[in-house]
Design goal:
253 residues, alpha+beta, Arc Repressor Mutant, subunit A, Beta-Lactamase, two-stranded antiparallel ribbon, 9 helices, disordered N terminus
């Protein structure tokens, strides 16, 4: 029985690997589920089930118009993790250095990853706090933290509602916040142009501004400043927000 389970598990991994390789080869146009089944030599129901799973996990994405499958954001993020010199990090790092120097606090680059966010870069300022524990590579459910709120503020209401529903159970492990409270935070971020949220560790606070790439709607990043709560006075919050908004605009202009 155990040997049979191992064979089944290995077979599943091999099938998934084959699907990802073939989609990567044809990523310039994508592959339909029928084409995937034929190329990888799978029964259509099996191919369809695996494709749906890969989409749910972010390894593939389905193009709405053609219904073809393309590589998803998770494959990109894994590639970023594997490589040291990352284009996206290189593009944003001067901004983070400037923000950390100006504020004295820690500056972060956060990106959306399907139902999560991932920290791509961190630059510490001279007043960096040990209470700010987010590190490069850390993932959080989309909806947890200032960067998540800023990112959600750029999405349509129906997509926000779908994400909140999907992540509700996960929020309990991070923050005791309801869906209604999250939607209110998102609306406030839209009105202000930035998001403000207390950190998971008492005494820490973060302010974040998000940016959506006009050439790739799936690429949404946020620049955040995190530090001691006492340093985030109302006046200083407004100053940091203005600086972040200007920096994001300048970086992507």
């Amino acid at each position: 029985m155990a040997a049979a389970k191992r064979r089944t598990g290995t077979q599943s991994v091999q099938r998934i690997s084959a699907i990802l390789r073939e989609v990567a080869i044809h990523n310039h146009r994508g592959l339909s589920s029928t084409e995937v089944a034929e190329i990888v030599d799978l029964h259509y129901p099996t191919a369809h089930r695996l494709l749906r799973c890969l989409v749910n996990e972010g390894f593939l994405q389905k193009e709405p118009k053609t219904k073809c499958y393309l590589l998803g954001p998770m494959t990109y993020e894994l590639g970023l993790t594997a490589r040291q010199h990352l284009t996206v990090r290189a593009a944003w790092r001067p901004t983070l250095v400037d923000v950390a120097k100006m504020t004295g606090d820690s500056a972060f680059l956060i990106a959306r990853s399907h139902l999560d966010t991932i920290c791509l870069e961190r630059v510490n300022g001279r007043f960096a706090s040990e209470r700010v524990t987010l590190a490069v590579g850390d993932r959080r459910p989309l909806g947890v933290g200032a960067a998540s709120i800023a990112i959600l503020s750029l999405l349509p209401d129906d997509e926000v509602a779908s994400i909140v529903r999907s992540n509700t159970a996960r929020y309990r492990k991070h923050e005791q916040v309801s869906g209604a409270e999250l939607r209110a935070l998102v609306q406030r971020a839209r009105e202000q142009g930035y998001a403000l949220r207390d950190g998971p560790v008492s005494g820490a606070r973060a302010l974040s501004v998000a940016y959506r790439n006009p050439r790739n709607a799936e690429e949404i990043t946020a620049v955040s400043v995190s530090g001691m709560t006492r340093r985030f006075t109302p006046r200083r919050q407004r100053e940091i927000a203005r600086h972040l908004i200007n920096e994001v605009r300048w970086t992507q202009s």
